[in-house]
Amino acid sequence: MRIPYLDVTLPEWQARLAGVLVFVLILALVHRILFAVLRKVANRTATKTDDILIARLGRPTFWLMIGVALAASGPGLDLPRYWETIWQRVIGLLTPAMFGWMLLAALTAYRDLSEVRFDITATDNLRARRRRTRISILHRIGVFVLILLTVMMMLMSIPSVRTIGVTLAASAGVAGLAIGAAAQPALKNLIAGIQMAFTEPIRIDDVVIIDNEWGRIEDIRLTYVVVRIWDDRRLVVPVSKFLENSFQNWTRETSALLGSVFWYLDPAADVPRIRARLEEVVRANPRWDQRFFNLQVTDSKPDGTMEVRGLMTAKDASTAFDLRCDVREAIYAFIRAEMPEALPRERIMRAPSAPAPSPLSDPSAHR
Q1: Threshold 0.85, pTM exceeds
Q2: Most buried one in 46, 50, 198, 283, CB count within 10 A?
Q3: CB atoms < 10 A from the CB of 160, how many?
Q4: Residues of 35-57 as b/e, b for ≥16 C-beta within 10 angstroms?
Q5: In degrees to the nearest 10, what's the CA dihedral of 110, 112, 116, 117?
Q6: Is beta strand 8-9 parallel, antiparallel or unpaired with respect to 234-238?
Q7: DSSP code per residue over 2-37
Q8: 73-112 per-position pLDDT tens digit
Q9: Contact 247, 287 (CB under 8 A)
Q10: Residue 291: enclosing H or E segment and its boundaries?
Q11: Whole-number Cα distances in Å, 251 to 13, 180, 207
């Protein structure tokens, strides 16, 4: 084939390949222009949905379009046998990879959209935390399955790999048993992660106590859970532990909690006055959710003190902790300033002393 205006003659297959490359460049330019327009339109909208879709799907759609165009133009190139074999191998590897990348980007975009839609920073966020947890776990399962299937499809495009796979099929049962025995802990946690997505013993942002540590569920993976401890440490716990062992979940149905404060006072304390002061303190505190409060004498101790317990409610665990600290401090200040007799005292019982003998009754006094 002779190129106009150039004194160059190319073989027919090279000329066709050059035409395919020009066509691919035109497709790339069209894709760039199209997504540039879409980004400008998305910047003018208030919603984040279109921004997330464009950011996640831009590059995968570009390379998928290029891969499909190259795969469709392959039969018409009429390449020499050697180059045709190389072309088929490359396209056989790239096409499944591009499709897998596209599906993975779409799955990740759906996860990002769910994070925007279900806001867990709201006060009543039980439904949002439930959906976010399930979508997060299912997203990781989907990523694992997609990568596995993509790699399998890429390998199946190589004839030698297919032959080896058929040869090893007879021993797949024995190999599966060996691998299953070696990877039993990992498979156990993987199955537990899938089960957790549907049974939901914990959710993202749940407040839990596990291994005597108080914290929030920060991340749920397929095989482990990250718990953010109150002092910003991270506790990494296997998923199976949440299904096999007991733990405390303070936000299972609702985040509201009933907090308690204990004082150990002298039995001479005026409990009705302390109860009235507690009511004033609790009602004036903005952390109280206006559901319930109470004060009772709940026990007497061997050291002579009595146990006084105050109850108060708050919207969540963090607020309840701050409310308890405020109430404890306010009641102690009240006792110290207006009721010092309520502070614990140590009482000592002394036996009466024997009377001194009278001088008249002492026989030695008459000698």
Answers
A1: no
A2: 50
A3: 8
A4: beebeeebeeeeeeeebbbbebb
A5: 20
A6: unpaired
A7: EETTTTEE--HHHHHHHHHHHHHHHHHHHHHHHHHH
A8: 666 566 667 666 776 777 777 888 888 888 888 888 888 8
A9: no
A10: none
A11: 68, 36, 6
193-208: per-residue pLDDT in tens?
777 777 778 888 888 9
Q: Which two tokens stand for residue 347?
A: 């009482």
Instruction: Give the model's confidence band at 3: pLDDT under 50 very low, under 70 low, under 90 confident, else very high.
Output: very low
Residue labelled with tokens 């498979």? 187
How close are the terminal C-alpha atoms of the chain, in Å? Answer: 159
| pLDDT computed for residue 306 by the predictor | 92
Q: How far apart, in Å, are the Cα atoms of 247 and each of 208, 215, 260? A: 7, 12, 20
**pLDDT for 15 beyond 80:** no
Instruction: Return the number of other C-beta atoms located less than 10 Å from residue 210's C-beta.
Output: 20
Given this model, what pLDDT does residue 196 score?
Answer: 75
CB 315 within 8 A of CB 249: no
Give the orientation angle of helix 49-73 with respect to helix 12-43, to 10 degrees.
170
Place of tokens 């009240």: 334
Place of tokens 């109850």: 311
Residues in the chain: 367
Assigned token pair, 301: 């101790």
d(CA 307, CA 303): 11
Residue with tokens 């925007």: 116
Residue type, 324: R
